[in-house]
Amino acid sequence: MVTGTCLAAGAVCWWVGAATAADVLWSVGTVCGLLPALVWVGLAVRRGRTGVDLIAVLALAGSLAVGEYLAGALIALMLATGRWLESAAEQRAAHDLRALVERAPRSARRRSATGVVTVPLGQVGPDDVLVVGPGEAVPVDGRVVGPTAVLDESALTGEPELVERAEGDRVRSGSVNGGDVFEIRATSTEADSAYAEIVRLARQAGAEGAPVVRLADRYAAWFVPVSLAICGLAWLLSGDPVRAVAVLVVATPCPLLLAAPVAIVSGLARAARRGVVVRDGGALERLGHARTVVLDKTGTLTAGRPWVTEVAVAAGWTAGRVLRMAASVDQYSPHVLARALVDEARSRSLELSAAREVAEEPGRGARGVVEGAVVSVGRREEGGGEPPAWARAAENRAVLDGAAVVWVAVDEDLVGAVLLKDPLRTDAPRTVRRLREAGIRRILMLTGDRPTPAREIATVLGLDEVRAEQSPPQKVDSVRSEQDAAVTVMVGDGVNDAPALAAADIGVAMGATGAGASSEAADVVLTTDRVDRLADAVTIAGRARRIAVQSAVGGMALSLAAMVVAAFGLLPPAAGALAQECIDVAVILNALRVLRSAERRVEPGTRDLLRRFAAEHERLREVIEATRQAAEALSTSDPAEALPAVRQVERLLRERLLPHERAEEHELYPALAAWLGSAEATATMSRAHLEIEGLTNRLTRHLALADQTGPEGTTGLRPEQISDLRDCLYGLHAVLRLHFAQEEENYFSLDE
């Protein structure tokens, strides 16, 4: 404000003929730029670095020495503007990991001979018996004393499911009691506990972060000595100090002081509009250099909470009825699996009933009376004899898929099994593809989960490596090993990810759904619950850095050309300052190109279609389940008993699924083809529609044959039909699952 006011006021005075007043105002502006510049140079020299500010100091001092006050005022304004932009680009949020520390327990309830007393955590020692109430965090590491403990260990492992720890089992501090009161016998002190180690690791990793070297200073390493050499030669060969000042004026590194910060600030603004908050310009620069991305699994590549994947039912029951009965009881429970059942029931537009006499037993499940029947939801009672064939098949699929099973019983009879799994985010495959396109050469996954589900997800996404059962210290070690080869990005969402985020070159937190501690430790925060914003951030960072380099290099080339002209006496200082301002304008306009959107957005009408058909997919999942259940019925029961289930599937396909597919074909796909640029982009999906309709027609012909009177005067499925009909149903199930997944990943994820 001061340098700009001095320059403008001096221009007004010069315009009205008050040349002396103009010189005074311009010289004041020059001094206002020189004094802080001297401080900046001094600080840089103390750190063993000389940057672009040195030339600015020489140019300002030279302008005052030879009386070129206008040139000095112009340089001072340029210097102040560049510093302001750089400051705006490098505002950094505190890395004090406040949320991580605030979550740590500060006291414990210790059992003594006189009762239970609350003591500071520092007074807890090994062998103390501690009481942990519902919803409380385990204060120190220990072993369970007495009844089984039900724990939420997501802060340590990232996995959302509750786990059980029997008497004598080890529990770690930071775990949260998800059941009734239990007791532990402490095996460590506060300082030696697992949660304290996470806090210590995060602080240590954040403190060891390498300082950021400004892009401008890297180029100044050679631009400054070249400029000073040309200035010295001009003075030496001509004997005219004004020529030397003229060279310094046009040598003032405006492209470095302005172009790089403007491009970086523009990149920060562009990223913010896409839901990506980058803490400072240095982080954006580093992100543009990144070649390795390390991803957490739960909450980053997956939804971070269990979703219903399948509902298996006994004969005479439907998936909708079983789910409605179970959700009617579970709507009163805070359990994460119970919430998943209720959410699924509501997504299918099932009307829940009021339940009476609801009781919940931690680790076992819930029980209540719904419509006069006693409904149990949770674990299957052991010792009740051999489970039926459909239940054994459901249990087998759960083992193969790595899914959790919630059993549903009505009046003590097992009627259904709900399979739940933490599903892959629909935008995760697009994210991986776009990261490859943005120049990321290596993508790996670190997770505290078991190897089998981790490898399954890594295979689907085509990741380069997966490391499972990783503790927070192991995650830090893995990130550091990757940093030896390339600039590394770590992406996570949980408290257990905070140390690795702080250790990485760039930490990226899923801020919309993740823990506050991970956001505190991160350089980049994704404020929307979409992992594909990571690909946006990498693309924007790379583009911002490229344009910053283009602007800086192009501007320096123009400045070098102007220096040569000034060295020959063809460009006086004031004219040189104006020429330098023209160069400034050119590099700033080029740097502002970062703000321009590089990606196409889906039109509102197409977006509405995507949401409509995505909602229909949710409601049609029961049709997919019914096809598999009908196929199983043909394998496990009498064909006559299975025939009603087959007829029900054929009716659902004709009345609900095929109309949905035809509407997609005639409404959604043309809109997507217009946006994607060609109908070929949706051709494979159209081919799947034909396959689905062909299999449905085959199913209809089987039923027509079953209705015909056979040689013995009977109707029904014939033995020769069973094998092909079963293949037809299993084929429909497989094609529908694949087709739905492809549409959700490739098309529905385009909805912002």
UniProtKB/TrEMBL annotation:
SUPFAM superfamilies: Calcium ATPase, transduction domain A (SSF81653), Calcium ATPase, transmembrane domain M (SSF81665), HAD-like (SSF56784). It comes from the Bacteria. PROSITE patterns: ATPASE_E1_E2 (PS00154). Residues 104-202 form the P-type ATPase A domain. It is a multi-pass membrane protein. InterPro entries: ATPase_P-typ_cyto_dom_N, ATPase_P-typ_P_site, ATPase_P-typ_TM_dom_sf, ATPase_P-typ_transduc_dom_A_sf, ATPase_P-type_domA, Cation_Transport_ATPase_IB, HAD-like_sf, HAD_sf. Residues 1-21 form the signal peptide. Pfam families: E1-E2_ATPase (PF00122), Hemerythrin (PF01814), Hydrolase (PF00702). The keyword Nucleus does not apply. It is found in: Cell membrane. The chain crosses the membrane at residues 54-80, 219-238, 244-269, 552-571. Residues 610-749 form the Hemerythrin-like domain. Keywords: ATP-binding, Cell membrane, Membrane, Metal-binding, Nucleotide-binding, Signal, Translocase, Transmembrane, Transmembrane helix. The keyword ATP-binding applies. Its main location: membrane. This is Heavy metal translocating P-type ATPase.
